[in-house]
Structure formats: C-alpha cells, structure tokens
C-alpha cells in the first residue's frame, strides 16, 4: 500500500497545552510508519498514518484488523489481548514460515525515528530489533513504557474481537482502565495502595476485636479459679517440704554409716594388723637353725636329679634297641613273604602264558572271518535328494505365510497411523474406542463403520486436502451404525472416550446426484466434485454427502481461481482451487451476493494414508482382507500344520540316513577294536616271556634273611648291658631319696607350727581389710545416692538443721507431711497449670493487642494521607470526563453522565458509572448489555473514549469497527464528534477502523483516510492514488 499524501496541518502557538507537537505535527510516541511482511493477509505492506485521526477503511476480510494486530504485537503486546490466537505463530501468513512487523515511532525530534521490529515464525519464536540492532524484549518494553503506550488497556487499544469486552467492563474495571489511560500516573499506584491498606485495616480490626474478646474470657476464667489455685499452692508447699525431707534422709543415713565406719571397722583393722606383725616376727626368729638342714637337703636333691637323668637316658637307649629289633623282625617276616609270593607268581605266569596264546589265536581267527562293510551310496543319495526337496517346500510355505502376515501388518500399520493422526487432532481416546468396537463386533446387530477416516480412501493428495478442509472434524472421528440399538449400546459403553456415534437410516439416506460437467464448467477449469474423488462403503459415503454437502462442492484448477467471478454466475456457490476455497452466499435482507475466500489448509489427517501409485490396489486388498480375515487366519494355521508335517518327514529321513552312517561306523569301529585286541595279546605274551627267573630272586632273598638275623643278635646283646646299668641307677636313687625324706620330717616338727600361726594371723588381717574396703564402697555408694538426690548447699544445709536428726523421726515427719498434702482433694488436678498458662496467654495477647492497635492507628493515618492525594484528584478527573461526556451526549440529542461510585473505605469497590438515556421519556441508566442495544453501547463507548482525549497521556488510540450496529444518525453525529476532537491541539493520534463511511460527511485537515483494497486489478489504481491524483484519474486507471 502506498504512502498517503502529506496533509497540511495547522500550526499551533508555542504556549499551547501539552502534548507539545513538533513542526511535523506529530508528538513523541506517535506511529509514523507501519511495515508488514508475510503477516496474516499481507505479503508486504508499508503504511504511513497521519498524526491526528486516521480512518482505516476497507471491506470485511480485506485486512483492517490485521493492521490492529500488527500494532499490538509490534509493541510487545501479548497475542491473547487480540482475542484471535494464543501464539504469535498463528499470525504468520498461511503458507509462509516467517514474517515480521516493523513499527516506527516518532522520537523527541522530527528527525528522531525509533524503529521497533519483531520477527516471528510458525514455531512461535520472536526476535526483537531496536533501530536495526538485536535487543532483548525488556529493552523494547522500556521504550514503550517511556511513551506511556498501553496496548493491553481497552481505553487505549480496543481491537474488534474485544469491543464487546469493553461494554462488559464492570465499574471497578472501568475505573482501573481509566486511571491507567488518563490523569495522574500516580492515581493507579495510590489506588492499589489504598485497596491493600484497606484490606489490612479490616484484617486488623477483626484481629483486635477477636483478641479483646479472647482476653476478657481468659481473665474471667482466671478470676473464677483463684481460690482453688491458693489451695493448690499450699498443697505444693507441703509436698515441697516432704521432698526436702526426702533429700535429707539419704544424707542422714550416710552420716550414721560414716560414724559406724570410723568407730568400729577401722579399729578392728588396726588390731588385726598388730597381731599379724607379731606372728611374722616370731616365725622369722625360728628360721635360723633350719637353714643348715635345707642346704644339706638341697645337695641330696641335686644328686637325685642327676640319677634321674641317667635313668631316663638308659631308658631311651633301651627303647631304641627294642625298636630296632622290632624293625628287623618285620623285615625278616616280609622277606619270607616275598619268597612265598615268588613261588605263587611263577605258577600264575605259566597259566597266563597259556591263556594269552589261546586268546591271540581266537582274535586272529575272528579278524580273518570279519567281512568288509560297504556304504549304500545309491540309498544315501536318494535320501539326500528327498531332504533338499522338502527343505525347498518348507521355504516356499514360510515365504507364503510371511507374505500373508506382512499384508495384514501393513493394513494394521496404516490404520494405526490414521488413528494417531486423529489423536493428534484432538480425539485423545480414539485408539481405545476403535479397539473396543473391534473387540465387540459380535455384539452388534448390524455392521458398524468407523472411525470414518479409516473407511475413506482418496487417490489424490490435493483432493484429500479439499475433503479434509470441507468435512467437519467431528465426522472423521465418528462411528456409523445402521441400527439405533447398536448406537445406544456404543454410546453407553464408550462414554468415557467422548467419541461421536452417528446412526444411518437407509430409507432416509441422501439420494446422490449424478456428476454432470458442462462445457462451460470445463472452460472455467471445473473437472470434478468432492463426492466423486474418494472411495468408501456406501453407508459412509451417504453420511459424508448428507452431513457435509459434498455433492454441492466442485473442484477446479488455477484457471478456476483466475475466473472465480464467472464460476459463481453458473450457480456454483462452493468450489475449490489449488490455493483457495470459494463460498458465495446470498444476504437474506438485500439479496446481495458476498464471497468468502479462505486459504486451503494443508492436510493433517490424510498425510499417512496416501499412495497415489497403488491406492486402488490397496483399496481392493483392504476389502478382501475385511471379508476373508478369518479364512486367512485358518490358511495360516493350515500352512503351520503342513510345515510341521514336512519338518517331521525331514526328521525321519535324516534319522534313516543317520542309522546307515551309524551302522557303517559300528562295523569300522569293531574291526579296529579286534585289531587292537590282537596287538595287545601279542605285546602281553612278549612281556610275560621277559619276566625275571624265580630261582635267582629266591637266592637273593635268603641272603637278606641271614643278614637280618645277625643284626638282631647284636641288638639283643646291647639290650642286656643297658638293663644291668638301669638296676644299679635305681638302687642309688632310692638311697638318696630316703635321706631327703628324713630331713623333711625333722624340719616340720619346729617350723610348720609357727608358719601356720603366722599365716592364720595374716588371713585374719586380710579379712579385716576386705571388710573395711566393703564398708568404704558402701559408704561411697550411699554418698553418691545422696548427692544424686540433692547436693549440699548452704541454703539446703540451713533447711536440714530445722529437720529431725534421726532416721526414724525424719521418716515419720515425711509421712505426716505427705498425708496432710494428700488430704487436700481437687476436682481439676491441672488447675494451677491451666491458671499459669492462661496468665502467660493473657500477657502475650495483651502485648499483641497493643501492637495491633498501634499498627491500626498507623494504617488509618496512611490511608487518610494517600486518600487525601488520590480521591480529590480522581473526583476532579471524573468531573472533567463527565463534563465532556455530558456535552457530547447533549449534542446528539440524548443525555449521559459519568460519576464516581464511592464506597467509603472499601476502595476495592470504587468504580466509574456511565449512565445514559437515548429517549426523553426514559431515565438515566447504567451502561450494560441489559438496558441498551448494541448500537447504543457502541455510541456510548466511542463518546466515552472521545471524552478521554483531552486528558490522556498516551500518544495514540486504536478503535476497531466501533460503529458497527449504529443507525446512520448516531453514526454521523459520532463521526462529527471524532473529527472535532481530533482537531483539538492536545488530542492523541487515533486509528478508527471501519468497513464503511456514510456519504457527505464533514472532514477536516485533521482527518487522514487509509483505504485498504484487494483484488487482481488494484495495482494500477494504487499507483495513481499514491501520486496524489484525483478520484477521476484513479477510476480511469482502473478502467484501463
């Protein structure tokens, strides 16, 4: 779109009210240029709006709202505020992968141009550029905030799809939006502070009331229990006194035990020690004469030890001689046994020689009689051929079975892909529903089809795209029944899957119209109809025709697209071209024909079911499989049985072949075994013949016997000498031992008695020491026990002095005190603890109550301070809006007012009420969808926005198709209000989008018209219009 002609604008004096306009009549933040590329309906667009009122005019669907979307998205707006899509990828032109929006804002000077570019793609990614440099989104938002641009504020930015939302704004929401858009920028901040602080104030008031109530209740409960508390304290004092007595009791017992230890136990230990020392001294004095006797005895003891050593040595020698004799005797016996064995071996050798010769002769004869074995080669070759033939048959059967199974798997794979496509399109439980229907087919009375997508085959990919775009999505995932009871059964059992079920009545089926392509249709590129381009069961096809009107939708070529207007003249109101879907409709009021052109969306469901080269074959295969599926499974079972039979036959033949081979191996092995036996017998015979002569071995053994007898004789003589020596040593040992015994007897008579007495006294002393140690241990335990109960302090010692001094008296006093305390009975044993807990709680709540009251006073003070700043300013602002709003309504011969709805300290309930009346007899009523019509609400909305013009801080405002539904009178008056407001010096830039304008409207230099047109002949008129020529020149350019 070409840039508009620069209009002459009036210049204002330097003392004019803000915002200050420059020499170019723009204010900072105005939009000076909009550039679109691959955005919604545009390939490329460059638009230069004027600084005041911009009328964007164009037919419906031409791209007016695309301009609004571009402004919002280009200035960091969220897609949700437009009410069209939730992601930026949806705004990329269909068929493209990426695009961009470029918004140029006027800076502080006419030469200062701030360009903000947002690049988007179908993957929902955005890239931001500020004056050509890539920047994060935050920097772009900072620039937008600098100019106070709020695309999410409905009073500044009102897109077509959210016009109804503005009328639905509550008074509270309208106040919030107005505060953001106009007036002091601190107003919304102060309002939020007041709302938050008022909520805190209410919470504090509730808390203070609750705490005061709780505090009074606790004080009353404590006052009722004071007498019981005094008795509890008296009882506690008695029990405490008894506990002190119990603490003294172990110390008293310890003192008595300590006194007994000092007076009795230690004295006994001293006396026993003195007696032990006296006995030891007497015993030591008697030891002098005995020492000589002991020395003499030691000499005898030494001689006895020497003799004992000699006796032991003699005994060891005798034992060695006896062992040697036993060994020689055993060797002699073994020699005689060897002689006997030699005699027996000679006899056995002669017998073995005879037996070996007989075995050798028999083996040689058996080897000569054994016939050679020949392998049956002909039979073996025949069996090998049979095995090869059977293997070939088995291989063929396996290939045939695999082909059938592969065919079934291929069909199941196609169905699975189609089911997955349906699931991706939103039918989350379609797979489960399909499997349920397949598993319960035996329960249906009639045939059940579905999902419909699985029953349809399309030969051409483009036709599949047309069909998918034309048929509603719910039909593709539907099941079709021929019996109402089947439909009810499926709906009841598959309710959790959420899948639609259609019941088809044969007598109500759609009667198909024959396809008749006339020559005129062929000239325009029409070659088929949607009901002719796919194959499906008759029931499914009838449902698609009746539900989607396929027999009224034609298919054309690019020629059809170029001559679309001529196609509609032939009476075809619905047809498809490779890129677009054309639908012509007739107005019920004016009989005016209007066209709706939509881009063809690519197929998502049929993309996994298309094979152009073999689609018909697949169709036939599917029908055969559906009708013969059970026969195929039975054929597979038969092939399995035949294969097993052939494998068994092959195994039998292999077994016969193995038997022949084993027989041959057996004969060969037997011949080799007989040959080895013959060779072994020959070697055995040679070995027996080489054995040593028995007579020579016997002579050697007899010589050995003579030698052993001689050695035994010498050993017996040595044993005799050792026995004589042993007798002499034994005699000497006996004499020495008798002398030692006499010396022991003489010493025992004098010394033993004294030693015994001294040892007895020593044992008595040790017993006394043990008793003393035991008393010390018991005394230590008693002290530890007393210390574990209570450590002695000066205060405790003073209290102990006032108590009884004996154990009996102290125990009696403890019992009396406990009896007195236990005689005091209470209904509530925990009364003291409850009293103290309540007392602590009273103190805690009192402190918190004091803090809450202080915070309450601070909160009230802050609210009054902020309210003093906010409310007067807001009242003044609403008053100004009301003045302008009322004046504008009076000029339109109706009445209206804007008022502030105040609610005291409930600042979250404050709101702005718009009251209007459009009839002299009616009363002022709040603007709502219940009291006013759509046109009346539109008039009220646009006049309210106009009333904000003088007070606004925003650089521009956008309103999309607000005049829809207005009658011509109100629309003309509204237009005059807009023109008058736009001519004011401090009016922001405004964009008003509309599909039409009334004739003979009054325009001013503040108005700028932006025409949006589309069509195949728009290029030449656009050039003429851009050059600034008159409308006649434009029309003539269009005629050429």
UniProtKB/TrEMBL annotation:
Q: Please give the SUPFAM superfamilies that the UniProt record associates with this protein.
A: P-loop containing nucleoside triphosphate hydrolases (SSF52540)
Transmembrane stretches, start-end: none
Q: Which UniProt keywords apply?
A: ATP-binding, Chromosome, Coiled coil, Nucleotide-binding, Nucleus
The record's listing under Pfam families reads: SMC_N
| GO terms assigned for molecular function | ATP binding; single-stranded DNA binding
Q: What Gene Ontology cellular component terms go with this record?
A: nucleus; Smc5-Smc6 complex
Q: Where is this protein localized, as stated in its record? A: Chromosome; Nucleus
Q: In which residue ranges is the amino acid composition biased (Basic residues)?
A: 1-11
Coiled-coil residues? 201-235, 380-428, 629-691, 744-771
Annotated RecF/RecN/SMC N-terminal domain residues? 31-982
Gene Ontology BP terms: chromosome organization; double-strand break repair via homologous recombination
Region of interest called Disordered, as start-end residue ranges on this chain = 1-21
* Family designation: Belongs to the SMC family. SMC5 subfamily.
Q: What is this protein called?
A: Structural maintenance of chromosomes protein 5
Species of the source: Miscanthus lutarioriparius
